[in-house]
Amino acid sequence: MSKSAINHNFQLLILHCTLLILLFSSCGRDNSHDEDLKIFKYNESAGILTLDPIYAKDLPHIWACNQIFNGLVAFDDEMNVVPAIAKSWNISDDGKTYTFVLRDDVYFHEDTCFAVKSTRQQDNKTTSRDTLNESTRQVVAEDFVYSFNRVLDRKLNSSGSWIFSNVNKRQQTTDNGQQTFEYAFEAINDTILKIELAQPFPAFLGILSMTYASVVPHEAVDFYGTEFGRHPVGTGPFKYQYWKEGVKLVFRKNPNYFETVKVARTQGHKDSRSQGLKVFCDSATLRLPYLDAVSISFIIDKQVAFMEFVKGKFDFMSGIDARYKDELLTRDGQLRQEYEDDIYLIREPYLNTEYLAFFLGENDTLGKERSLALRQAVSYSIDREKMLRYLRNGIGTPGNYGIIPMGLPGAWEQGTGDWEQGVPFSSPVPESRSRVPSQTIGYPYNPKKAEQLLKDNDLLGCELKLYTTQDYIDIAKFVQSALTEVGLNCKVEEMMPAALREKRANGNLPFFRSSWVADYPDAENYLSLFTTNNFTPQGPNYTHYSNAKFDELYQKSLTCNDIEERARIYHEMDSLMMTEAPVVILFYDEVLRFVNKNVEGLGSNPTNMLNLKKVKIN
Q: Which one has a higher pLDDT value, 576 or 131?
């Protein structure tokens, strides 16, 4: 056994012993402080910068905002579109007009911002925040018009403005003769909202489930101004309570939340005549959520956070870190037996593609052909199966194909030489379904081909710097080693997540690790990352890949209502983009959720959305 292997095993032994001590020492701790309140606790290592939903572009922010805000519709765990604030909707025959009927029992969180107008009307004086009582009001259709236009306000620079790119624009003439336009959001009355699209877009209903499309009250935005992201007001199951930056964020139960559930209830009494017990069954309506509060901590070191989870300080942990994966999981990705009494594991396919990306800006000194050869060589040089086996305990599927993950229409189907036709993510694939052969897509492991590309294009010894965060440093070093073996000189630079996101959005990173989690189960969500109109910072095209044919196919897909034909278009787009290799696909992920056994009802879903409204703590 090598010295490095001995050191690794010794480190695992120390970690294992430490965790056993923590498990036993935590058994006798005093929990009386928490007995009366049901508080769900989790850690967010990446940190949270704002709770304004128009900036919720990644999971840490989406998870937090999802507890505070609602939109018109939502996805359930089976990825079906279900009502939220909209209780019903209708789509016109031409696919361009969406009419939503809103519930009339949805109210914003109680907050002092709603008391400002009425107080000032009474005394006509400037009012201190400290003297105001909390109040609320009903959500109406005009609130969605305001919220959607806020997402599109260029001055606010929302990362989600692209979600309304298909909404029709109406031209107007101002009093001074200038031509302006407004988006076709219309409040017919308090409970009817109409949205007109410029062209049919089958994925639009799913897009409206995104956190970006949450409803916010104009009173709160006016009252708190630029601090709205620090003092959010929404309609969700929890409301903002407390935030100490970098330490703790607390949400409190919203007592006025509109969603309810029916639960079975049994009761009985003794029958004097029969001397028996008569049992009556009926149902009771309970208002969600069950929890009293949600507490989010911000421990940056994931190993420390893991130890706190094992001690019972956190109720849930998502994903796996290289430093403790072997402590929790077996080689085949199952929960180790010693943890089965205290923790359960939820594991399912995840609509998340992990990849490396190149920024294709104007400062390319290699030239178009050599730059392409370099990107393709990088893709061919990585043994993804080995990477997953040793670094992720077999969690995930090797990314030898395109950007579209397995299971979505248009994706390459592993091991068949075929591609997925129009089968919804939650539907089983019919065995009798005809399959259409397709051209090869993606880059399987082929180091000889990588070396030949580098040699033919005079790229041996070429220098690359891969930017990543601590969570992916092991994968980055694996890639670094693979690139070294084929003749490239690769360095790895670790960055804080917030710094990497900012530089990535501004085009300041030439080669970086990234990922994309589907916001809705349609391949359009992935392919939109590569359209010219979605260049960052306004859109999610971090690579600045641009291809006229790709853009043309994307527009064609938006007007195609035939599922199988749209899947063909998606596959052609994926193949075209991968031929030019702006990204290096690493793997298609899986959802991993480690949950304490006192937690009930957490569930899971292919987008890894965190829904806490039905969670119970026993």
A: 576
Q: Is the pTM of this model over 0.85?
A: no
In this structure, are strands 583-596 and 316-318 parallel, antiparallel, or unpaired?
Answer: antiparallel
Contact 257, 109 (CB under 8 A): no
Residue 521 to residues 2, 130, 405, 587, Cα–Cα distance (Å): 46, 46, 10, 18
Query: pLDDT tens, 353-365?
Result: 999 999 998 777 8
- β-pairing, 238-244 vs 276-287, is unpaired
Any alpha helices (H) in 131-172, and if so which ranges?
141-152
Q: Which two tokens stand for residue 74?
A: 């939502």
Let me know: does 460 contact 487? Beta carbons within 8 Å. Answer: yes
The C-alpha atoms of residue 367 and residue 40 are separated, in whole angstroms, by 53
Residue 107, token pair as written in the block: 């109210």
Nearest to 98 by CA among 172, 11, 185, 40: 185
Query: How far is CA 208 from its chain centroid?
Result: 14
**Mean pLDDT lowest for which of 65-74, 277-286, 420-429, 513-522?**
420-429
**Cα distances (angstroms) measured from residue 383 to each of 73, 259, 432, 486, 547:** 41, 48, 33, 12, 29
Q: Are 390 and 578 in contact (CB under 8 A)?
A: no
Q: Which residue has the higher pLDDT, 58 or 425?
A: 58
**Averaged pLDDT for residues 13-21:** 50
Quote the CA–CA distance of 388 and 399 in Å, as a whole number: 10
The answer on pLDDT for 454 being more than 60 is yes
In contact, 51 and 239? CB cutoff 8 Å: no
> Residue 500's closest CA among 302, 357, 306?
357
Residue whose token pair is 């994931």: 302
Q: CB burial class (10 A; 0-12, 13-18, 19+) of residue 471?
A: middle
Q: 551 pLDDT exceeds 60?
A: yes
- State mean pLDDT over 151-155: 96
Cα 93 to Cα 170, 198, 200, distances in angstroms: 21, 14, 10
For tokens 């703790």, the residue is 248
Strand 97-102 to 86-91 pairing: antiparallel
Overall average pLDDT of the 114-129 stretch: 56
182 pairs with which residues across the strands? 170
Using left for φ > 0, alpha for ψ between -120 and 50, and beta otherwise, residue 242 falls in beta
Picking from 527, 559, 558, 557, the residue whose alpha carbon sits closest to that of residue 545 is 527
**β strands within 219-259, DSSP E:** 238-244, 248-253
| Residue type for position 364 | D
What single-letter amino acid sits at 367?
G
Bridge-based pairing of strands 343-358 and 583-596 is antiparallel
Strand ranges (E), 455-582: 463-468, 489-494, 511-517
Question: Which distant-in-sequence residues (6+ apart) come within 8 Å of 468 by Cβ?
Answer: 475, 476, 492, 493, 494, 495, 500, 512, 513
